[in-house]
Amino acid sequence: MTTTPTKQLLGESNSFLEVLEQVSQLTQLNRPVLVVGERGTGKELIAERLHFLSDRWRKPFIKMNCAALNEELLESELFGHEAGAFTGATRRHQGRFERADGGTLFLDELATLSTRTQEKLLRFIEYGEFERLGGSGVIKSDVRLVGATNVDLPSLADANKFRHDLLDRLAFDVVTLPPLRERQTDIVLLAEHFAISMCKELGRELFTGFSSNACKQLNSYHWPGNIRELKNTVERSVYRHNSDTEALDSLSLDPFESPYRLTSNYPPADTAQQSPPNLVESNGKQKLDDGDTDETPEQFPIDLKSRVAEFEKALLTRALMQAKHNQKKSAELLSLSYDQFRGYLKKHK
Ligand SMILES: Nc1ncnc2c1ncn2[C@@H]1O[C@H](COP(=O)(O)OP(=O)(O)OP(=O)(O)O)[C@@H](O)[C@H]1O
Ligand SMILES: [Mg+2]
Which residues approach ligand 1 with their CB closer than 6 A? Predict the structure, then answer.
């Protein structure tokens, strides 16, 4: 149960302000609401806002991720069960519909509900009542439902995978969150907020700001993971940025990006034909043998320069990781002077 809103909702773009306006109007009503949008667009924060701005704000805000459990466990979590309802049910269990009485029940990942659970939900919306698993008495609860999904429910209903009648009732109104790429004026604003929070977390006094190059990167990337991806990217980039004076110039968009990944991530079926020499083994150790193995020998022609560059990058990355991004220590690990090391970093960007 959450008793206070956990996070701030930031944004000034028109599309986002329109959503906030719609949400303020919906807080006055007791009807079910659907919050839809791509992953990471802030659906859960909007559901919280719907609750905490409503008259129900002193009462529980209960969340349930419908994709997290199988049908039986989910129903037991939602509706509760009596002792002996199924193997392992030793005591009566109060479900989330009961616990949310007077407040809001947030059903996340709603599209994954089974047909049977959809029927029970429909009954609750129609009559405000349900039964515990293994129970015979009807229980009433005063709950406002807020559902969320990143799936297009009307298409799912057309494909007979979601009940049309349930959808009609759940979707009294639908709040559709815009993807981050459609909120251009919010990207840098949000990025700065996340960067400043990360600096605080790291005990750094100031955030040195984003360079114009970094702002360009922020604004041109399409952010498929939306605000969650932006938050992670900014936090990672701030953490990796080791200067208290220079502006952050380059974003670390892909945490998996590594020359080590490039040398070990080829489709197995084509390995014999296409893979480059495995200069780095899966355990990260450099190979020392000269080909006296069972592996297929190198197929020429190869591009020697790019292979050597990949190998250099792999070693630089490993040294940096081992030295926790301390560049002086990384240089020592590679028997290089600090300037030589910086030279290599620059060469490989
Ligand atoms: N307007 C906003 N201002 C600040 N932070 C935000 C905003 N919207 C979302 N966030 C942050 O982005 C992250 C993702 O938000 P949230 O979990 O609400 O998204 P979601 O749409 O429910 O994602 P998913 O579909 O993956 O469940 C969270 O860390 C949240 O705090
Ligand atoms: Mg969510």
Answer: 7-11, 37, 39-45, 150, 190, 227-228, 231
